[in-house]
Amino acid sequence: MHRSIVPSSHPRAKSLYIRELLVNGFKNGIVVEEGLIAHGRGETFDYLLGEDTTETARTAIKAACSLLLLAVHPVISVNGNVAALCSKEVVELSNIINADIEVNLFYWSKKREMAIEKELKKMGAKTVLGTRSVDSTRIPELQSERGIVDYDGIYKADTVLVPLEDGDRTEALVKMHKKVISIDLNPLSRTSKAATITVVDNVIRALPAMAIEAKQLKEQNGEILKRIVNEFDNSKNLSESLEIIRCGVDARYG
Ligand code: ATP
Ligand code: MG
Questions:
Q1: Shortest CA distance to 241 belongs to which of 58, 47, 54?
Q2: Which tens digits make up the pLDDT trace of 62-71?
């Protein structure tokens, strides 16, 4: 890691540090070129949102953690960008909510899958699903590599956390009657709109925040968790994030 390249006094230090994590992930075979570009789209929204976890995102985080704690079989889906940015946090959250971790790649290669598995295991993951064992199966409607999932993981899961996901896959999981929680900086993406609960925040901040929240909520009884989930309105929450972007732009340039 080259954290020292970015002086902490630099006004965009955090943002540049995140870029470094991705570039390192690219060099280590975890991230693909397209992942770097996808990050650019996320960065734009992060900039507009003020590069901080908003209260609106916190409301979604609380609902997301409640849903994950209520799940019978939760799975966290991991792609290259997520592995490069927050493997440790994925493992931590999976331990708290008792979830499986599954590698699921848009641009699949055996080499990349193995690099991500290795990274997750380095961070303490005991089992990593989705590594093309005999147990792989297919999500209906998704062609080629994109639709292949682990039979004992995402295929059977009742709740799937997809930090950074493509709209097609999110929609396909929802069609399979799964509860889908996404973390996506773009409140306008198909993923954000299709998911059961969308956390509009950077994964690098949202996942640690979810670990803290889940630890606290774990002490609550199921009825309280159900109430938190039922009171959550995803479209309303997305509109609030858009409003934050609008107000921020008006305040800075209006
Ligand atoms: P969709 O397919 O859902 O309509 P898209 O095609 O615009 O979205 P994709 O490349 O499929 O975009 O998915 C990447 C998504 O992840 C984008 O919405 C982008 O804003 C978001 N994103 C990228 N980096 C981060 C990050 N670090 N944290 C949270 N979200 C991010
Ligand atoms: Mg997409």
A1: 54
A2: 999 999 999 9
Output the six-digit token pair for 16. 């540049």
Average confidence score pLDDT of the chain:
93
Q: Is the dihedral of CA 39, 42, 48, 49 positive or negative?
A: negative
Eight-class DSSP state of 101: E
DSSP string, 124-193: T-S--B-S--TTEEE-TT--GGGGEEEIIIIIT-SEEEEES--HHHHHHHHHTT-EEEEE-S-TTSHHHH
Pocket of ligand 1, beta carbon within 6 A: 38-39, 41-42, 45, 164, 166-167, 183-186, 189-191, 202-204
On whether the CB atoms of residues 86 and 207 are closer than 8 A, the answer is yes
pTM score of the predicted model: 0.95
Among all bound ligands, the one having the nearest atom to the CA of 204 is 1
- Ligand of minimum distance to the alpha carbon of 194: 1
Q: Which amino acid is at 53?
A: T
Mutate which of 185, 204, 241 for ligand 1? The one with the most ligand atoms within 8 Å of its CB, which is: 185
Instruction: Please tell me the distance from the alpha carbon of residue 254 to that of residue 247, in angstroms, as a whole number.
Output: 9
Distance 188 CA to ligand 1 centre (A): 10
HSE-CB at 119 with a 13 A cutoff on CA atoms is 28
